[in-house]
Design the sequence.
C-alpha cells in the first residue's frame, strides 16, 4: 500500500512540475528537456492498486474442474475410528481419503455430513467439492465427492449434504471413487474460510 501511495504522490508531483526550459546552444532540433522522467510512469502503480482495492474472488468450480483428481500415493491402510454421533461431520478430504484408502471401511453404514460447493460432471453427475490448501490459494488442490440420489443445485452453490457412503471400486485403485447416497441436500452460505487445510 505504501508503494502505491508513494507512486501516486510522485505522479501528482511530476504532473504539476513544469520543467525549466534551458536554452541549449547545442539544440538537437526537438522540443523536450532532459531534466525529468516520463510523466506517465505513475501509471505503473495502477495494477498494484487494483489488486489491493479489488482482490480476486476465492477459487471455485472452475479451478476444481481444471484439475483432475490427483490422489496422493497414500496407500491402503487403517484410519482412526470415526467419532460417535449421527451424522458424523467430515471434511470432503477426510471422506474421500476414507472412501478410497480405508481398509477397515469405517464409513460403512455411517451417516455423514459434508459441506462444499457444487461442481458438475458428465450428464447429471454432480459433486460436493472443496479446495485444499497448504499455504495459500496458489497451491490449492481439489477434493470432491460424487453425490447420488438428489437433484444437482447450480454450479458454485454451497451445500451441506447428509448421506451414506456408497462403496465403489477396489480400495487404493483408480477405480475407487468417493460416492455418497444423499438423504438431504441443504443450501448454505459460503463459509468465511472456503478452503480446507491439509
Sequence:
Amino acid at each position: 500500500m505504501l508503494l502505491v501511495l508513494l507512486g501516486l504522490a510522485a505522479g501528482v508531483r511530476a504532473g504539476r512540475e513544469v520543467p525549466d526550459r534551458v536554452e541549449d546552444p547545442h539544440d538537437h532540433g526537438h522540443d523536450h528537456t532532459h531534466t525529468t522522467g516520463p510523466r506517465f510512469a505513475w501509471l505503473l502503480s495502477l495494477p498494484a492498486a487494483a489488486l489491493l482495492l479489488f482482490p480476486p474472488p476465492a477459487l471455485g468450480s472452475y479451478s476444481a474442474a481444471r484439475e483432475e483428481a490427483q490422489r496422493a500415493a497414500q496407500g491402503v491402510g487403517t484410519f482412526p475410528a470415526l467419532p460417535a454421533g449421527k451424522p458424523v461431520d467430515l471434511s470432503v478430504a477426510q471422506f474421500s481419503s476414507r472412501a478410497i484408502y480405508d481398509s477397515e471401511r469405517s464409513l460403512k453404514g455411517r451417516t455423514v455430513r459434508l459441506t462444499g460447493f457444487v461442481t458438475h460432471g458428465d450428464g447429471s453427475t454432480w459433486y460436493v467439492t472443496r479446495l485444499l490448501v497448504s499455504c495459500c490459494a496458489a497451491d490449492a488442490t481439489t477434493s470432491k465427492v460424487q453425490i447420488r440420489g438428489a437433484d444437482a443445485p447450480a454450479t458454485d452453490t454451497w451445500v451441506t449434504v447428509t448421506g451414506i457412503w456408497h462403496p465403489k471400486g477396489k480400495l487404493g485403485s483408480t477405480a475407487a471413487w468417493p460416492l455418497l447416497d444423499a438423504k438431504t441436500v441443504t443450501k448454505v452460505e459460503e463459509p468465511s474460510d472456503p478452503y480446507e487445510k491439509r
The beta strands are 88-89, 111-120, 126-133, 141-148, 158-165, 179-187, 195-197.
